[in-house]
Amino acid sequence: MLFLAPIVFVGIVGSHHDAVEHQLEPSLEKNGITEMAIPDGERAAIVKHTPASKGIVRGLHSSGVIAGQLSGSGAARTFRVVIYDGEGNLTTDLESPIGATGLTKKNIQMFEINISDIVASAPPPTKQSRMAKKTAPADDESPLGSSHGDDDAPPGMPGSKKAEPVAVASASDDDSAAAPAVTEHAATPSHGHNIHVRVGLLAGIVGRNFAVDPNTVQTYSSSPVGTGGVGGAITIGARARIDASFEHTLVMHTAVGTDNSSTAIARAEFAASYNLLHGAVELAPVVGFGLRYFQIDSMSTMRSPDVEYQYAMLGATVGKQINQKWALRGLAAFEPVVGGLAPGATAPSRWGFDVGAALELRATEHVFARAAFDYQSFALSWDTKGATDAYPGGSVTAGAAF
Predict the structure, then answer these.
(1) Do residues 28 and 2 make contact, with C-beta atoms less than 8 angstroms apart?
(2) CA distance 49 to 172
(3) What residue ranges define each of the domains in the chain, with the CATH number in brackets?
(4) By three-state DSSP, how is residue 356 classified?
(5) What's phi and psi for 180, nearest 5 deg?
(6) pTM over the 0.70 mark
(7) How confident is the model at residue 113 (pLDDT cuts 50, 70, 90)?
């Protein structure tokens, strides 16, 4: 007997689909629906219900398949949901107007009603079924609240009539048999995830202000200089994320006596985060590891010393989606230094912190841009003396998302 996988959600076709998939994630998790990544061509065939769609759906070996499509723009945007049973028969085709900033509460309610029907249904029917395409009534554009997806029942306005699920008609005109009976069904936990990758090139500036107590080491101060680098991220589902970046000064020199010595400031980081709050505002703890170093290509003992900070990252990020294209991000992290080259005759105790903010633009489905400001500072402490080593900076990143 062929084992059927849980009901799967294969994603959404259309511009800025990531934001809508993000809104649907709590509903999918609550109903035990697994996210599955499939080729774009197969997803498009499923949404368009082409002759190939039945074979594609059956080839997924699941109990049911859900997909979506975004069409139009501005106030004329619509969201279409198609649902197939495990045999590849189209059972639901629902199109609804959506708000300018994303799905409304009514959109989410209708989506949950339809997916709960297929989750609760008995084994798929033996006859191919067809569905008359319906359009849901227009609704207000109030955004989905952050608490949605945690209730035990589909949300609805008090005293309002519960939305009816889309009806299924038999493929045979003379077939008067009723639709399959609905039985109670415990949702299977979701284990599948959509994986998205972002890669971008960075151009920015960074400065340094190394202030020390008298009779310790040589101070250092510089104006901001240009930097270049690369950054990337992998998101797993709507909550987990892994980030990596590297940034290095392009051209920098320091006057050492009569020489003009080549100088470098660089930074590399690797961090992982997981959204605990997943709604209008996102909050995610962050852990990771980083490296910051300053180096002057000179053997002179009169210059400011080279330093290297190998540090852990313990912090959090906060995010706010402004609309379909724009988002605000913030970061705060405590960074205890665990290794690296330290200045002075005796090694000081060292720790640091980092704060930053960014404005992100999702220009198209596969193109993004990011403008960010960052301030990182380390504190050094000897027995009775200390120092601070600060690195203010800013950057602009542009890249591709897949």
Answers:
(1) no
(2) 19
(3) 8-170 (3.40.50), 196-401 (2.40.128.100)
(4) strand
(5) -55, 145
(6) no
(7) confident
